[in-house]
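Q: What does the assembly look like in three dimensions?
Context provided by user:
Components: two
Sequences:
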Amino acid sequence: MEEIAFFAGAIGALGGAIAVIALRNPFYSVLALIVHLISLAGLFLILYAEFIAAAQIVVYAGAVMVLYLFVTAYVGGVEESIWEPIPGQRFLAPLLAAALFIELSIAVVGTALKAVESTGPTIPADFGSPGSIGELLLERFLVVFEAASMLLLIAAVGAIVLAGRKRERETVPARGAGR
Amino acid sequence: MTFEAPDIDYAGLSPVLALTVGVVLALVVGLFGSGRRQRIVVSIFGLGTLAAAAGLCIWQWGESKELIAGALRIDDLAIAATLVAIVSAAFCIPLSWREESVERPLGPTGHGEFQALLICSVLGMTLIAQAQNLIAFFVALELLSVPLYVLCGSATRREQSLESGLKYLIIGSLGSATLLYGLAFVYGASGSTDFDGVRAAVGGAVVDDPLLLIGIALAAAGLAFKLSVAPFHQWTPDVYQGAPTPVTAFMAVATKAAVFCVVVRFFDVALGPAVGDWQPALAALGAVSIVVGNAGALGQDSLKRLLGYSGVAQAGYMMVAVVAASEAGVSALVFYLAAYALMNLPAFAVITIRERETPFGDHIRAVDGLGRERPALAAALTISMLALAGLPGTVGFIGKLFLIEAAVDSDYTWLGVMIAIGTMISLAYYLRVVAAVWMRPAAERPAGGAMPAIAGGSQEADTAGKGVRCRVILGATLLAAAATVFFGVLPSPLVDWAARAGESIAALP
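A: Here is the predicted structure of the complete assembly.
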């Protein structure tokens, strides 16, 4: 059962990732990225990380991807240039990717895959479950959790401060200040 | 699964609560009024918040207890770092009055937002000084940094300031990411996110685990970015120069205090048993920083760049105290952090005033002939430069003495020698400023207006030209300069204070 779930997730993740770069329409690429992220969430589930799986779907596959979709729909329809934007990219990119693949393979084989035969680390039964994470957020990390909300608030304030620049630029010529 | 509400110690948490309320108040109050009225109302709330937080810190002085089930801990070291951050924020609020980027309707930021960002950064520093856990450590570090990124770029009319904000954002994020990666490795090796748990695991079997070594290396690099320790310092001069001067002053002083506090907890306490792994690395970082900072400052004509490089060198001096990994080292570090605040803030105040008074910006020509023109300011700048150089009779001398003593006690005599050599080199550029103040005639100003070309338009000249004789700024500057001399002659109150902070860490020899 676990093997089936793993291969389903792995094929979905790899297929989605390949589709992201293979598809020509950016809109379809974003949809393929969603497939990739949901498959990753499935892999997290096999690792008993239910909370991360849920966060992956809600935050990435949900919120962030909707933002991407809006942006592609908003900006979309840009004609792809006939020339390659970076000269030699078609030749260099596969070369670098192959180099990276070889490097990673050497690193993986270099560890002699020691952990493959073992059952992995021993963890408490409810480790990483939504319940235990929620408990941590409300107990030990109460203040840290609230600090994260302050962080979001102040990031929003900062964004407004920096974005206020455009409005101000527009009013400058109206005042007739010589720049 | 049962839920047990954590035992919340509201008394210990009170400085954090006061600062949180202050952020929200500053934001809300900033909505009302504009110009002078907004400035006065927001500053009353901002300074009031900082005063309340400082008062609560002093009330909690001497306590040593876990807050919220051990995620945070309030002790004398945390309170000392918090007080340094609060004092420097309180010093920067008057400096920001009439700053062109803050003053509405011309400036885009507004006093409410400026002070809310400033206080939020202090809140992050308070939390990071109390952190007992890798997660609290990282969240607090972000809470401290994000407002600073925005503040650096807040003078959106000047391209330099935007560049500074963007540079700090990118480099800061890189540093944060490196640190987080390192913390993940430390967690992977030790199996615990608590500093105590890491200490227990490191003391056991995992000392030679390559995971731990990678984690230590990455975390040290990430923290070095934040502390502007060479060779991770390249952003420092640019960001210091581009940011609005009050922000630079706050950044230079308060960030170091808070981050060094957590460096002590992370390296000296959590990774204490693995001291052999990180001590040589941090010693090398400190030594490189001393050399690079002092050499880089030599040719600088911009005062803010000069202080930026000087900050790199000073961070190297302070790193020596961490390397010492002893109670004397922590005491010396806390003393030096307080001294650094007292020495640096007057210098930045004088630069701010001269930026508004003269057309030279932060160029060294702005202080030419200051001795004849404004003797009080000249005296403050001179004291600050001499103290940074470490001349006897100032608090800087005593601070360096303690640093060297701590280094020698921990068998790092060569680092003590490095401090002495760095001090000798540093005299060359600090004395150059002093010479400009007292020996050169005032630089001739180009005809046509007293304002630098950065502003343009007459309204800015109205705003920026005023306030150079603000009594609050002058008073605070002279007070800090006087304290520099006072604690240089009679260091015992500050020494006792720093010693208490050092004693609060029980794990050290």
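Follow-up: The longest strand of chain B covers residues 65-67.
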